[in-house]
């Protein structure tokens, strides 16, 4: 018996040696691959992709156009062990040297790091990044995420959100870049450009009109072509032009009666044909609803599984409903993207990141994103020569700062948090402030008992109230007021101490019934891993605030285009339908033609509605003066002016340029057409030139299906916010 068993083991060992490649064999295979024609780096990405395509079998092609699942999304597939713990993956082709595409959510940092025993830096939220109005900071933002993705074994990001803020109650407002398409498109473009430079496939999403979370899988967004092209789609157009993303993610919603992921106008007519986008279209998770229509419309890759783009796709090929050329086009786009972004030539290698360097970048970006909204009697920066006691008030202000939830969620240190958990990032504002002061008494009150908080405020020289508004994917806010009676808390504290400063942690606008009762208001957004330190640096004046609002703060939800949020009917399908996309259908509509292209400040201007804080508003600890405006029309219009720092300390001013079009254009009263963030020493003046592309002055002509510059007189306006524009000059085109 023993001899028989020994012979069996020897036979099994021999079989394994035959079937499992040795290290030498693997090296030989790699050497052979290096000599394959598609490994020639002097060829273009398209040429290399075409060479690989010719070598692929039908099954290999099918494998490339759908995902292999994600943890928690149904039973795992036999290939699940090849994943990296992220949102999903697409099989590679070892025999041809094509790597697996490992995807991760990464809106403001890499998701699920705690689940996978890793660490990720949390950057400020995307809307906070937009508040910087700083393309270079957006680039640093993307580059950091790209580096951390690769360090964790990922080579594709699912960040890059740029749906504009039509409704500030949208639960994903914090993931996006504000309400203006020029600002949002420019900043997301710079973010994804620098993300992709790290050899990570960059992504821009959610294409398009995914402007609310309520009923996102069953809502039909209705909008005219001109309105769409001058608002939501313009942000994507600019982002694609600047950022050259590898992928565009189509959204859950329907657009004018057709699901976005099978909408030929969106995916082929505009994106691939007009914008010449060379990458691939990937569906949002569970947002594919068909095989033949989706493929024909321009969807290239279904995620996270192959409900429609696996066996059903193969059957449609065999029946002739889908031509082989169509499949080849999907595959070619994915392959050329892998080559273009360096996935083939620069494979990922897991490594330890420089934590201290990355959190320092996060802190710096946060400092440039914090908006000083109000500063009565120059209560800020805090003067430690005159202050002997400070009251720190607010829920968890002794623990950390809040972050945004959903698939964007970055794990804080510690165990992983569940879906839509409220995640707070240490260190706390209390500790950050305590570290900054000597011989100053700093006391804390949670605010759970407003009377106790008011008593502490009354006995202190200054009261700083930290308030928060949490939001997440998969939900919308019922309104814009602070939850948990925080408005009442501020009222009582301000009544006890007029030197009250409110620090807001939010991902969107909030209403402020107490605005006239407090001295200072600071919008800190979701400020990331080092948010508390960034806030302290602003409060004490180590950093001069320079950020400006990327969205309007309205006085009330009654001033919004739709005061009542459109929601699914009773018995609506809910988000679970994304797990059963074959059952999805429209159950209600949102008509965006009411405001059309008049989104955000354009709506309030057109309706002559006063606002709480205007788009582009943001104060500084110094002052600026504008003069000597000169406009030179042309294919690239130049707007030149002088900007002077008239205060006593150095600062960075976002100088904003707007244009009012001729009346015959039937346009918004004004639109943002450019800006420049300028650094100035006290008393220093600089001549500033902003170049305005022709498209930013044009309207979209539906009849000609093209951008058109209307003849007539244009008014150019320059200043520090959309409602503070001291310079204006007309030019004729």
Class derived from helix and strand content = alpha/beta
The quaternary structure here is single chain
Show unreliable segments. Answer: 1-6, 8-19
Rough outline:
globular
- Number-wise, the strands total 27
Report the mean per-residue pLDDT as an integer. 95
Strand order, sheet with most strands: 10-17-16-15-11-14
β-strand percent reads: 15-25%
| Helical coverage, percent range | 25-40%
- Biggest β-sheet: count, sense, barrel? 6 strands, mixed
- Rounded to an integer in angstroms, the radius of gyration calculated over CA atoms is 27 Å
N- and C-termini, Cα separation: 98 Å
> What is the helix tally?
19
Attribute tags:
alpha/beta; disordered N terminus; 27 strands; six-stranded mixed β-sheet; four-stranded mixed β-sheet; 733 residues
Write structural notes for this entry.
The structure is a single chain. A hairpin with a 3-residue loop joins strand 19 (624-632) and strand 20 (636-645). Strands 10-17-16-15-11-14 form a six-stranded mixed sheet. It is built from 19 helices and 27 strands. The protein is of the alpha/beta class and 733 residues long. Mean pLDDT is 95; it is low at 1-6 and 8-19. The chain starts with a helix and ends with a strand.
């Amino acid at each position: 018996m023993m001899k028989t068993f020994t012979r069996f083991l020897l036979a099994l060992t021999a079989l394994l040696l035959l079937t499992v490649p040795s290290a030498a064999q693997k090296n030989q295979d790699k050497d052979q691959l290096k000599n394959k024609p598609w490994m020639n780096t002097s060829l273009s990405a398209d040429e290399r992709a075409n060479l690989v395509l010719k070598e692929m079998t039908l099954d290999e092609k099918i494998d490339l156009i759908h995902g292999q699942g994600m943890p928690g999304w149904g039973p795992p597939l036999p290939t699940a062990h090849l994943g990296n713990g992220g949102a999903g993956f697409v099989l590679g082709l070892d025999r041809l040297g094509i790597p697996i595409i490992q995807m991760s959510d990464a809106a403001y940092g890499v998701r699920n790091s705690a689940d996978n025993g890793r660490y990720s830096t949390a950057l400020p939220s995307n809307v906070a990044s937009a508040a910087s109005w700083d393309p270079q900071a957006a680039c640093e933002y993307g580059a950091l995420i790209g580096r951390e993705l690769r360090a964790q074994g990922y080579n594709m990001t699912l960040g890059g959100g740029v749906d504009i803020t039509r409704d500030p109650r949208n639960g994903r407002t914090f993931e996006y870049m504000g309400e203006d398409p020029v600002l949002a498109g420019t900043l997301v473009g710079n973010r994804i450009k620098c993300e992709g430079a790290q050899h990570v496939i960059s992504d821009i999403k959610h294409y398009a009109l995914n402007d609310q979370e309520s009923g996102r899988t069953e809502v039909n967004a209705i909008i005219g072509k001109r309105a769409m092209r001058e608002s939501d789609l313009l942000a994507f157009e600019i982002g694609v032009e600047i950022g050259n993303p590898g992928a565009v993610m189509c959204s859950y919603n329907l657009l004018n009666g057709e699901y976005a992921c099978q909408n030929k106008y969106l995916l082929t007519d505009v994106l691939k044909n007009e914008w010449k986008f060379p990458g691939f279209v990937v569906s949002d998770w569970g947002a594919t609803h068909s095989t033949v229509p989706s493929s024909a419309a321009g969807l290239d890759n279904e995620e996270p599984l192959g409900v429609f783009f696996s066996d059903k796709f193969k059957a449609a090929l065999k029946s002739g409903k889908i031509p082989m050329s169509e499949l080849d086009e999907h595959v070619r786009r994915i392959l050329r993207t892998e080559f273009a972004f360096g996935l083939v030539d620069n494979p990922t290698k897991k490594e330890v990141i420089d934590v201290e360097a990355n959190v320092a970048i996060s802190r710096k970006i946060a400092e440039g994103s914090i908006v000083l909204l109000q500063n009565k009697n120059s209560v800020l920066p805090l003067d430690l020569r005159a202050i002997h006691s400070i009251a720190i008030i607010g829920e968890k202000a002794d623990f950390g700062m809040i972050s945004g939830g959903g698939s964007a969620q970055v794990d804080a240190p510690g165990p992983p948090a569940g879906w839509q958990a409220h995640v707070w990032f240490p260190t706390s504002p209390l500790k950050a402030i305590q570290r900054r002061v000597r011989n100053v008494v700093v006391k804390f009150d949670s605010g759970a008992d407003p009377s106790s908080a008011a008593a502490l405020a009354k006995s202190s020289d200054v009261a700083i109230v930290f308030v928060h508004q949490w939001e997440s994917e998969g939900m919308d806010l019922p309104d814009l007021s602070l939850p948990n009676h925080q408005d009442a808390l501020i009222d009582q504290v301000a009544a006890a101490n007029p030197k009250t400063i409110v620090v807001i942690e939010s991902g969107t606008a909030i209403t402020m019934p107490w605005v006239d009762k407090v001295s200072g208001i600071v919008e800190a957004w979701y400020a990331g891993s080092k948010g508390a330190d960034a806030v302290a640096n602003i409060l004490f004046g180590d950093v001069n605030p320079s950020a400006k609002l990327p969205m309007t703060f309205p006085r009330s939800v009654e001033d919004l285009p739709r005061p009542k949020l459109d929601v699914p009917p009773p018995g609506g399908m809910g988000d679970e339908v994304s797990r059963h996309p074959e059952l999805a259908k429209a159950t209600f509509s949102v008509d965006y033609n009411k405001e059309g292209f008049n989104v955000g400040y354009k709506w309030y201007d057109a309706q002559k509605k006063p606002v709480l804080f205007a788009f582009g508003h943001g104060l500084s600890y110094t002052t600026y003066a504008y003069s000597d405006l000169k406009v030179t029309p042309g294919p690239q219009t130049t707007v030149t002016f002088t900007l002077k720092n008239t205060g006593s300390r150095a600062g960075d001013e976002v100088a904003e340029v707007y244009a009012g079009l001729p009346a015959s254009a039937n346009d918004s009263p004004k639109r943002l057409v450019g800006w420049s963030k300028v650094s100035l020493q006290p008393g220093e003046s600089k001549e500033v030139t902003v170049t305005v592309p022709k498209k930013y002055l044009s309207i979209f002509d539906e009849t000609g299906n093209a951008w058109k510059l209307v003849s007539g007189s244009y008014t150019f306006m320059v200043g520090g916010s959309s409602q503070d524009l001291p310079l204006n000059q007309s030019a004729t085109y």
